[in-house]
């Protein structure tokens, strides 16, 4: 477990029917029936990312896809339990009120109720994002490691070698221009959790008011991934 002092993310979605469907797109923050604080982002294409924590500690990460039909939503994905290093597939159903509230129940019986975060509508800016961030990163199968992440104003990202593993990649605003970035990473080194030459793609969120980033990515097989956070001095 790692100390986690970041308060961010929440949800999105899409779908179609004879009646207009509510959009689940945006940031959603709230509580689960299992006692965690959960933060989820659902993108305009339904891709869904999130994490859950308790008492300042990160316990798990989430990845899936969400769709809506009217005010009803459904989806499926995987839950990465970080203390136990387990990956559990599952599905969920629920309801959403656009840019207001979301409620869902998973196939494992847990429920989540969240509210919309308006910071999703702020424009993504590489100029504002650029800098050096100090923090920690971990994968679904490895313990936290201290990292330094440099991001340039053109979106180039580098992570110097830590315990024999380095990374490089790119960060770019999504076509929607909302406050979320696309992220692509390649790892170099024999000790990398995702393998030497392994790749991952995902998202990055920048909290400009606190100069903090949260990054999440998955390997192509969607069997493992990483989560990282950092603060710009």
Give a description of the structure.
There is one protein chain. The protein is an all-beta fold and 233 residues long. It has two domains: 26-120, Lipocalin, CATH 2.40.128; 123-231, Lipocalin (Beta Barrel), CATH 2.40.128. 2% of the residues lie in helices and 57% in strands. It is built from one helix and 16 strands. It has one helix at residues 126-129, and strands spanning 26-32, 37-42, 47-54, 57-69, 72-81, 86-97, 101-106, 111-117, 131-139, 145-151, 156-162, 165-173, 181-188, 199-207, 212-218, 225-231. The strands form two sheets. The chain has an eight-stranded antiparallel beta barrel with strand order 1-2-3-4-5-6-7-8. An eight-stranded antiparallel beta barrel has the order 9-10-11-12-13-14-15-16. β12 and β13 form a beta hairpin. The longest helix has 4 residues, at 126-129. It is globular.
């Amino acid at each position: 477990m790692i100390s986690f002092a970041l308060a961010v993310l929440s949800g999105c979605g899409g779908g179609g029917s004879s009646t207009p469907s509510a959009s689940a797109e945006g940031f959603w923050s709230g509580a689960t029936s299992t006692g965690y604080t959960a933060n989820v982002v659902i993108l305009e294409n339904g891709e869904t990312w999130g994490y859950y924590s308790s008492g300042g500690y990160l316990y798990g990460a989430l990845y899936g896809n969400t769709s809506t039909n009217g005010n009803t939503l459904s989806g499926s994905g995987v839950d990465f339990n970080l203390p136990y290093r387990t990956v559990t597939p599952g599905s969920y159903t629920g309801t959403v009120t656009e840019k207001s509230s979301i409620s869902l129940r998973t196939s494992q019986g847990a429920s989540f109720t969240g509210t919309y975060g308006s910071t999703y509508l702020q424009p993504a800016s590489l100029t504002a994002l650029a800098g050096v961030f100090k923090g920690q990163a971990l994968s679904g199968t490895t313990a936290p490691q201290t990292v330094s992440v440099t991001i340039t104003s053109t979106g180039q990202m580098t992570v110097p070698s830590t315990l024999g593993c380095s990374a490089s990649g790119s960060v770019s605003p999504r076509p929607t221009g909302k406050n979320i970035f696309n992220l692509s990473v390649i790892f170099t080194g024999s000790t990398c959790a995702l393998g030497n030459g392994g790749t991952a793609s995902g998202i990055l969120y920048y909290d400009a008011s606190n100069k903090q980033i949260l990054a999440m990515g998955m390997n192509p097989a969607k069997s493992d991934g990483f989560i990282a956070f950092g603060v710009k001095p």
